[in-house]
Amino acid sequence: MANPQHHPLELNPRTGEPFLRLKDHKDIIITPPRPDDVVLYPPIMNDPRIYEWLGPPFPYLTEHAEAWYAKVKASSDVVLAELEAARESPDLLLVGGCPVRTIRKVQESGEEVYLGDIGIFRCLDGKLMTPVGIPVDDEQVAEYVETNAALAPGNPQIIWTVGDYIVPSHHGQGIMTDALRTLLWDWAVPRMGVRHIISSTFEGNEGSVKVLQRNGFVRTRLIKNHVQTRGQWRNLNVMEWHRVTNER
Q1: Does the residue 53 lie in any domain?
Q2: Could you report the per-residue pLDDT of 228-243, keeping only the tens digit for each?
Q3: If DSSP codes are grouped into helix, strand and coil, which group holds residue 73?
Q4: Among 31, 87, 149, 239, which lies 20 to 30 A Cα-Cα from 79?
Q5: Cβ neighbours around 118 below 10 Å, total
Q6: If you ran DSSP here, which 8-state letter would residue 227 be given?
Q7: Cα 102 from Cα 113, distance rounded (Å)
Q8: Which has the closest alpha carbon to 183: 77, 111, 102?
Q9: Which residues, 6 or more positions from 138, have their beta carbon under 8 angstroms from its beta carbon?
Q10: Residue 115 belongs to what H/E stretch?
Q11: For residue 171, which phi and psi values (nearest 5 degrees)?
Q12: Domain limits for position 146
């Protein structure tokens, strides 16, 4: 019997796996991570069209892929367990995450092709949460992170962030814009209580900036020399989204 707490997730009738179908790209779904994905991560993350804008370890090895899979699989399992525990509740549970994040294209044959990843999760970067123009030290930055992490699921004061990528073969097709819109409005807002998101992109990554802007994000500032990747200091665009009552 289907668990009403999975709403609005659909269930794969063959495997029972939950998924979200994109609003505009009906042949693309978002699912939990799968063990078979692990071997796909390294060639994607070692592609300069990806690592230039994400800053993963380089070279990206099998051990990195296995660690990433273990992390995202555990997060998915926690939410699914919470939904199962609340199966008999008459009200939909507000949870602290989303059980689906892997973007896949469903072929006419039924085969599902890995396209990328998208996640909405609590912001862990205290510098992004620091009010503009207010100087703070490392201890104060850490306090922002601790405070944000301690807020109970559903608290409207939680600051969230977004992380995503799509394989280069599917860049420029509007898929990530659709994926973010679907995840945001079908799950994050109603099931996580998301009201405020602070995201970021490396300066020059105008593709990601456009995806965020098409979903209502506003570029609020540029942080210079925010992080060092492969020996190079990178500037960071900060993008913010606030839930507006009549927005959809």
Answers
A1: yes
A2: 888 889 999 999 999 9
A3: helix
A4: 239
A5: 24
A6: E
A7: 10
A8: 102
A9: none
A10: strand 112-122
A11: -65, 150
A12: 4-242
81: DSSP letter:
H
Q: How many domains does the chain have?
A: 1
Residue 247 domain-assigned?
no
246: pLDDT strictly greater than 60: no
Residue 59, domain CATH: 3.40.630.30
**Which pLDDT band, with edges at 50, 70 and 90, does 183 fall under?**
very high
Torsion of CA 8, 118, 192, 28, to 10 degrees: -10
Question: Could you tell me the pLDDT band of residue 1, with boundaries at 50, 70 and 90?
Answer: confident
Residue 194: inside a domain: yes
Give the separation between CA 40 and CA 58, rounded to whole angstroms. 15
Q: Please report which helix (H) or strand (E) contains residue 76, including its range.
A: helix 62-85
| 75-103 pLDDT, tens digit each | 999 999 999 999 999 999 999 999 999 99
Residue 223 lies in a domain: yes
Given this model, what pLDDT does residue 15 score?
A: 87
20: left (phi over 0), alpha (psi -120 to 50) or beta: beta
The residue ranges of DSSP E strands in 123-231, in sequence order, are 160-166, 196-202, 218-229
Contacts of 200-204 with CB under 8 Å at 24 or more apart are 200/125, 200/128, 200/161, 200/226, 200/236, 200/237, 200/238, 200/239, 201/53, 201/236, 201/237, 201/239, 202/52, 202/53, 202/55, 202/234, 202/235, 202/236, 202/237, 203/234, 203/235, 203/236, 203/237
Report the pLDDT value the prediction gives residue 248, as an integer from 0 to 100.
Answer: 58
